[in-house]
Design brief:
This protein is α+β, with helices and mostly antiparallel strands. The chain folds into 2 domains: 153 residues, Jelly Rolls (Sandwich), CATH 2.60.120; 117 residues, Arc Repressor Mutant, subunit A (Orthogonal Bundle). 44% of the residues lie in helices and 19% in strands. The protein has 9 helices and 9 strands. A 6-stranded antiparallel β-sheet has the order 1-2-8-3-6-9, covered by helices on one side. Helix 1 runs parallel beside helix 6, helix 3 packs parallel to helix 6 and helix 7 packs across helix 8. The C terminus is likely disordered.
Length: 274
């Protein structure tokens, strides 16, 4: 799968890269075995992964699951994988560990606070406000915290739960009711609500909000300036509704994060003009 890769930081122990997939991959890719252990945290959109028993097996007996902004994909040399994605432009952070692979491959949960921490460290790195040793330890701690989560085994969850994740990730801005979502995934609303919370640790509404806020972090980093339009684009009823949800989830406001992102973008433009 063709992608851009920009190395932000690297030491002999860990490297941190930003990646962007360049072209749609609607069909399953060929099997691939990574050279080293790596953790992919999506910033926007989604992709499907299949952990395969062997590279040549093309998924025979493999395990498939969706990755979105609420989850991370942990890949290791001991487990081949393949991917597919609905379109180009999927972006993510990639943490590559050079050495041991301390946990089994699979999907892990990622918090909004961890996404926000990466944004803050990226800004501090750009501004020269963080020492390499401090950043190296912070990245390792984040990776270890994510890996400490149990493997999110999609095979153990009811199909309706995984289909709900797929539906929400495809368009987080949609305002479907629980009954409409349940009908789309062929389940009863009561059963879906109970099973979704049991297998994900979140309500359906809470999961959708996390997807929206994760997408907001990326849009703000890309320079989105009209917060009212951003709120409506993401499916919130108003700017105030968006701001309240954003503050509850991240501890800061979208306007404060926008100010920081705008200042950083301005500094980058000034640097390139010198």
């Amino acid at each position: 799968m063709p992608y851009d890769r920009d190395t932000l930081f690297a030491t002999p122990l860990i490297s941190w890269q930003q990646v962007r997939l360049l072209a749609p991959q609607p069909q399953w890719s060929d099997g691939y075995r990574p050279a080293g252990a790596r953790l992919l945290l999506l910033q926007q959109d989604r992709l499907e992964c299949e952990l395969t028993p062997e590279v040549s097996g093309h998924g025979a007996g493999g395990r498939r699951f969706l990755c979105d902004g609420t989850s991370a994909l942990w890949l290791t040399p001991s487990r081949p994988y393949r991917m597919r994605q609905p379109g180009a432009g999927v972006r993510g952070h990639l943490l590559c560990l050079h050495g041991d692979e301390p946990s089994h491959a699979g999907r892990r949960a990622v918090s909004l606070q961890q996404h926000l921490a990466l944004r803050r460290w990226q800004r501090a790195l750009h501004d020269g406000l963080i020492e390499p040793l401090a950043l190296e330890e912070a990245l390792l701690a984040l990776l270890q915290d994510v890996l400490a989560q149990r493997v999110d085994d999609a095979g153990a969850a009811p199909r309706a739960v995984e289909r709900t994740r797929e539906l929400l990730a495809a368009d987080p801005a949609r305002g479907d009711t629980l009954a409409e979502i349940a009908r789309a995934v062929h389940a009863s609303p009561y059963h879906l609500a109970r099973q979704f919370r049991r297998h994900t640790g979140s309500t359906v509404h809470g999961h959708r909000t996390r997807l929206r806020i994760t997408l907001a972090l990326q849009r703000l980093a890309q320079g989105a300036s009209d917060l009212t339009q951003l709120a409506l684009d993401l499916g919130f009823a108003s700017h105030s509704h968006f701001s309240a949800a954003f503050r509850r989830a991240t501890g800061t406001t979208p306007s404060a994060l926008r100010t920081i992102s705008t200042a950083r973008a301005g500094a980058g433009a000034a640097d390139s003009a010198r």
